[in-house]
Amino acid sequence: MVIRRLSPEVVNQIAAGEVIERPYSIVKELIENSLDAGGRRLRVEILKGGAELVRIGDDGEGFAPEDLLLAFASHATSKLSLLADLDHIASLGFRGEALASIGSVARCSIKSRQPGSGEGHEIRCEGGVVSEVMPCGCPPGTQIEVRELFFNTPARRRFLKSSGAEKAKIQELLYELSLARLDVDFTFLADGVEVLRLGAGQSLAERFAQCFGRDLAKGLLPVAKSFGDLHIAGLIGEPDLARRDGRQELLYVNGRQASERSAVMSIRQAYREFLMGGRFPIYALQIVLPPSEVDVNVHPRKKEVRFLDSRRVAGSLYETVRSGLQTSGAMSAPLGVQITDDMPRARSGFPALPPSLFATPLADSAPPPVLVRELSAPSFGEGARPFATSVNAKASVLPARPNPFRSTGSRFLQVHDLYVLLQVDDGLLIVDQHALHERVIYERLCREHQARKVTVQHLLLPAVVLLSPAEKAWVLDVKESLASAGMLVDDFGEGSVAVHAVPAVFKNAAPQKLLRALLPMDGESDAALRLEEQVVERFHSMSCRSAVMSGDRLNDEEMAALLTEAATLLHPHNCPHGRPTVLTFTSAELERYFRRRC
Amino acid sequence: MKILCDRTQLQEAFAIVSSVVPSKTTKPILQNVLLTANENGITLFATDLEMAVKVQLEAVKVTKEGKVLLPARECAALLRELSDPTVTLDSTDMRCRIESGGGSFVLLGENPADFPEEAKIKPGRGMKMPAGRLLQMIKETAFAAAREETRYAINGVMMDFGGSCLRMVATDGRRLSISYYNLDGGKGEFKALVPVRALATLARAIPDSSKEELTISVGDKQIEFAFGKAHLLSQQLESRFPDYEGVVPKAADTTVEINRSMLESSLRKAAILCSDDLRMVRFEVQESALRLTAESNSRGRADVSMDITKKGAGGSINFNPDYILEALRVCNLDSVRLDMSDDSMPAKFTLGESFTYIVMPISGT
Prior knowledge:
The structure holds two protein chains of two kinds.
Chain A: H1 8-19, H2 23-36, E1 41-47, E2 53-58, H3 65-68, H4 98-105, E3 107-113, E4 120-126, E5 129-130, E6 134-136, E7 141-147, H5 154-157, H6 163-180, E8 185-190, E9 193-198, H7 204-212, H8 214-218, E10 220-227, E11 230-237, E12 249-253, E13 256-257, H9 261-271, E14 283-288, E15 294-295, E16 306-307, H10 310-325, E17 369-374, E18 388-392, H11 393-396, E19 408-415, E20 419-424, E21 427-432, H12 433-451, E22 455-466, H13 469-477, H14 479-484, E23 488-491, E24 496-503, H15 511-518, H16 527-546, H17 556-566, E25 582-586, H18 587-593
Parallel strand pairs in A: 1-8, 12-14
Antiparallel strand pairs in A: 1-2, 2-7, 3-4, 3-7, 4-5, 4-6, 8-9, 10-11, 11-14, 12-13, 15-16, 17-18, 19-20, 20-21, 21-25, 22-24, 23-24
Helix pairs in contact in A: 1-4, 2-6, 6-7, 9-10, 12-16, 15-16
Chain B: E1 2-6, H1 7-18, E2 32-38, E3 41-47, E4 51-57, E5 60-64, E6 66-71, H2 72-81, E7 86-92, E8 95-100, E9 103-108, E10 126-130, H3 131-142, E11 156-162, E12 165-171, E13 175-182, E14 190-195, H4 196-205, E15 213-218, E16 222-227, E17 230-235, E18 254-259, H5 260-272, E19 281-285, E20 289-296, E21 300-312, E22 315-319, H6 321-328, E23 335-340, E24 347-352, E25 355-359, E26 362-364
Antiparallel strand pairs in B: 1-5, 1-7, 2-3, 2-6, 3-4, 4-17, 7-8, 8-9, 10-15, 11-12, 11-14, 12-13, 13-25, 15-16, 16-17, 18-21, 18-23, 19-20, 19-22, 20-21, 23-24, 24-25
Helix pairs in contact in B: 1-2, 3-4, 5-6
């Protein structure tokens, strides 16, 4: 056997496979480049789903002619030079792989002109063969063309999907990327037709509405909360909007769309009691934290990130979403993302951290902002953007959905021994008596549970649980946290731990089962929170058992009592299993239906 | 097969046997009772493959020997409804004609040859004791066993015989109950973990304070209880039973003597005001009184005191009241003893000369 060193072309083609799968990945990489270059107006054009042509133009800082020569070289980047820089990556790209990879599998050209300079320059690269740099005429910024993708690797070309599918995928990508950059103007043309035009300066809600539809956008609640140097802001969808897949769970970390398991799980947890099983919430949330707290270099296509303190991030997300779902409006006013700390700066000349992002006005128009905070953001070199935060008065107390039972009159009627029809100030409610009563009992149990100290039932015989090394390490790691929630565990040697006590509310539950139920959380999420969830799970079934059933006839006093208590509920819209409790018909809807009004 | 017998006796025997007949099974033949007639009388036999019950009946006139399978539910119901003092059973092939008074009924059974056979225990290990005493021991222990079988908890009672003493022990991991019986000059030893369901079936067949002798025979995988004309055979559980002697506390900071009926009624009152989801009553040992308190945010507060005699430091400890009440219900003493230390150590209740009960307390963190 002979071991040979591969030629650079082959190396690049192999590497390209990881980064460039289809036109979508080209668009993603090139848009990230343009944004990193400070582009404010982005124009994306494709022909035949991008297989024939992908052209991306920006008005960013452009290449100097001498830099153009290095553009297609592998591991050449302007974004990073020292090893230490990897610890605080603030740009979207950083590895210097994208252009080299694209250049090795397509016919590319880059035309670029720096804003101050009189003429532009062009360089071509076809299947990894780089031309010389030639002067050319072009507008300021950079135009990149990628033609005949995979012309030299026909096998991969066959794996491309239909042009319609590729186009849809790219369009979706633009939706997702554009939400992170409200300050950038995006235009998308497919086969010569303008498909999408997103103007700079839109609010998050406006842009979301334009991308995903007005109907959907109506059910979004703005949220924003700060936890020291960690800031979370964005939109969360009402539970009714939940989907059967997780495709509209949009999470951004410092302007980069990225996912992290414990973060996503904690958001789902926050939604849990409002959603039926198998449903996923809709949200677009941005996490801003110092770049040194995030590792973005964990996934070839940068789809995932890792947090230094994932428990803190998960806990903060949970709190933000929970308080956002609060319907009472009594929660503290969200003040938008307040970034006051000094984030580690990227090297000067780098377009650094993401822009104000989700911190642009949360609600449209109406009263002028009561709080506009120009934060002493670090100056990010040229094109620096202040982290402006402004929230208008309307948004400072969440509009959300008010408790519909607050405005009930005294006229109601039970039908089919299951539903209660109820006149309210602005229309008609139809209530599922079982679901509503379940929610009433559930909240009563939760209130009582929260009001008392944690109590533990000690075990006469410690329950030994066999665990994998990773599981065991996690359990011992979160031992203190578990103890604070009422579960005492200890090392029991060789791949096992012993449970010495469990929360006293679990009367006869098997301790092993209880501990195992905490485990599948990937070892990262908050253990005490998971244990609480198990408690709450018990309350679900207790409330279901003691609630009035379908078929129970209620007299007027009973209905009145139920509705009075419903007016005090924190979350009156769903039963603890996520089924809706009430259907609302507003007077306006009724009038429209009976053609009293058009 | 053809027999004539006393209806009441047959009905009682049938009731005992059919208590093991499974109500749901994927093997329908198990829903029958096997009746065998020979020169000694008849035997009724039923099994769910985990345990089996056999009852013999002598007050029978057998005119023709043989075997028949009777559908358990229908036959039991029929025997209950008939009013004539005697009943005639006459079978040919798989059908059995029952005649009593003016009525005649035909029950369709299955082939007796397909019914599972009775397992035989090879004689050797075992012991004898009064049936009423075993009944008492079952009552004192079975309630403390786990409700369902898990890797942690065992739905069975340990019967541990050795050194002239039979110990029956049950635990669900939170409390543990031990009952002793000393034999005069017994010998041999065995350990068998018996399913609670088998003991409960046995308990139903034994009249209270019966002096009649009961024989226990232990095989490798089975255990048999023979009592009068009835036999109950059960599989042993194969779980590992924990080392129960290790958990009995040897010393205590405080020892209290309490009137049993006072404790039971006070505890029942206090428990009313526990919340549904967290059952907890606080036991506070004062100079000459025991004070029980319970509290629920939504229901209110209970505070009951009773006289006691106390040795040691005193202090307080919390229990799930249901655990204590279940044990007091089977206790016959006038006065019970509680040995306790701090609120994370096991507490010991002495509920009879040969009945000890260990409970783990509840504490705040």
